[in-house]
Amino acid sequence: MLTEVTTSERHDYRLVPPAVVLWLGVLAGLLWTWWAALVGGLAAAGVAGALLWRWRRSRPRWFSGIAALLLAAVLLAGPLAVRLHDAQHDPLRALADRAAPAVLHVVAEERPKPVQSAGYAGQQAGARLVVIPATVRWAKVSGAAVETTARVVLLAPVQGWAALLPGQEVTAGGRLAPPRDADLTVAAVYVRGPPTDLGPVSWWQRAAEATRAALRGACSVLSEDAAGLLPGLVVGDTSGISPQVQREFTDAGLSHLTAVSGSNLAVVAGAVLLLLRALRVGPRLSAVVAGSALVGFVVLTGGEPSVLRAGVMGAVALLALALGRRRSVLPALAIAVCVLVVYDPAMAVNFGFALSVLATAGLVLLAPRWVEAMSTRGVPPGIAEGLAVPLAAFLVTAPVLAGMAGQVSVVSIAANVLAAPVVAPATVLGVVTAVLATFWPAAARLPALAAGPEAHWLLAVARHASRVPGAVLPWPGGWWGGVLALLAVGVLVVLLRRPRLRVGLALVLVCVLLVVVPVRVIAPGWPPRNWSMVACDVGQGDAEVLSTAEPGRAVVVDTGPEPGPVDECLARLGVDRVPLVVLSHLHADHISGLESVFDGRSVGAVAVGPGRMPAWAWRQVAQIAGRHGVPLLELELGRRLDWPGLSLEVIGPRYPGPQQERDDADGTNINNASVVLRAVTPAGRVLLTGDVELLAQGDLLAAGTDLHAEVLKVPHHGSRFSLPAFLSAVSPRLALISVGAGNSYGHPSRSTVDSLVAGGALVARTDTDGDAAVVTDNGGLAVVRRGK
């Protein structure tokens, strides 16, 4: 893009006002009411008509732009306002407010998008639902036919629905609900049961799906994370990307790399154009060939709205190139905005659309100027472009990203600068892999292996950037958060443009570096000195870390409901050697983070109790242990384990857990089969109880087990199923409750907390306190809360 537009050429802004009027008018109509679009269109038409009448004879250079503005205003006040009115008054919308049962025959518009969720009890972590935008063909609500062709969004089970392809017709039954997004969607449908009346799939969608499957197969020669990332970089297929990697890319400001956008198309078209330029092919033929490559890439990615959006923008840019008018890139972008908003008004509130438009505008308007300014100051052109491109993209997209994610990544610029050199090679090699994999799978492994180092570099950049202290700052979400971020960017630009204010801003940044960075990075307050145990904040689940006398070496008990949080907790504690991971029982909120414990650490063994249910959880634990080549041990009653500064003794369960799924419908028996550990640490005795409930607690009391401990890991996230006699027998000075904020289970129970407090215990909770560390302070016991 930077080679096509230079600062010596004046940009043509005549079509920018029509694009802005259409975009903002439809945006207002969707966020408020269709009347806003109507009034905005009429007002713009009045202004444009008055200007055309005034300058009808002189006809200045921008006269054609005013004529285009009038046309845009007429479209906004006419057909677009009517479409908004129809969507906002669709009969399904009123029925959705009443949660009416419905049967709908729809056409899928996009590939099903999985909704990732943390595991809990017998529910496995991962995707249990998929989201499918669709258009209604016919509908029956409460048995009565409803005339509508509106848009809905299906929330359907993964099983049976994940394989649906765009353009495929299907009948779905479920219950209506009001839509969450302010677009043309009139209802959400919570689908029950499998799809029925499945229609045929177009040949090109079948071919695209076969190619994506072949690409995933060819990438299997890479490591698990790299094999999942490469299809995401190439065709936006994120099905193989782990939740931990997704979180790291989001925190590092690199999540845009795994969504098909204009950048993917630019890389593909740019590679084709470079090849054609080397062959001395003319600009018009080059544009035709590159356009054909764009069409093929759109087919490969499934032809979804986001891809079509990027394809339209790439097509008009190629048209400007074919016509030999470099300064036509900005008008081409304006035309693309107008065409897309008129074709699909919902684009106006689409964050991806806003990101594409703003990023392209930033690369056209800002980056070339900054490259030229840096070059005149002696910065080499390659380095200048490497700095200017991500900086311009970040500056113009920061408001949208802040509103979309509800956070601001302060490491985004640095992460994108480090990632930029390998994105294009990885994408091109991925496309070559996809093409070869369709007819020569063996040969496709070579470009896949060649893309491996680039994928691993991106993974490393995202991981290290996301772990920088203060890498992510909270920010108000939604469109209002985006407006606030826009104001902040505007203030920053004003400060940077004025020399005196620029000096003041530099002084403020220096103060921040001298005050905040030493506190957060150089001399962090975490982990606290002399820590013996930490209850990690992993959400609605359990993960405890017990230190040994050797720095960096600790035992982990349970690993939380999803990969990522326990890994981050261990990284904060500086733990790189884990001699033993103990899984108290096999419920998802205790085992689902196991894989991430191995990330960058040596692990000696994984230990479990006598329970083997749920079966899927046992298989998962065995597979992870086998994949990493560590032994899988069973902890029998009375077993003792010793390390320098730490001793563990197994004191429960007194009886084995269920061996058949039917023996434990609600998970109570599995909870009661939790491994109960008594740990001896420099801070005193610690009782680790898993999720033991009333029966198992009674068994421990009846056996006369010595339960007294200075620290109690409260059973089952502080649920009400704790015997007062059990809590009294432990008589802890400190009670740690591992629980997720805002959970729907009522944890922790008020009665349990009150009983602990009445018994003289100090209570620390991960939902309000974050990581909680047990430390020795002048020979006594204390707790240090990291905070949220």
UniProtKB/TrEMBL annotation:
Keywords on record: Cell membrane, Membrane, Transmembrane, Transmembrane helix
The protein, known as: ComEC/Rec2 family competence protein
Topology in membrane: Multi-pass membrane protein
Coiled coil (UniProt feature): none
Compartments reported by the entry: Cell membrane
Taxonomic lineage from the root: Bacteria, Bacillati, Actinomycetota, Actinomycetes, Pseudonocardiales
Metallo-beta-lactamase domain mapped to chain residues: 540-741
Transmembrane parts of this sequence: 20-53, 62-82, 254-276, 283-300, 335-367, 387-405, 417-440, 477-496, 503-523
Chief localisation class: membrane
Superkingdom per UniProt: Bacteria
Annotated organism of origin: Amycolatopsis dongchuanensis
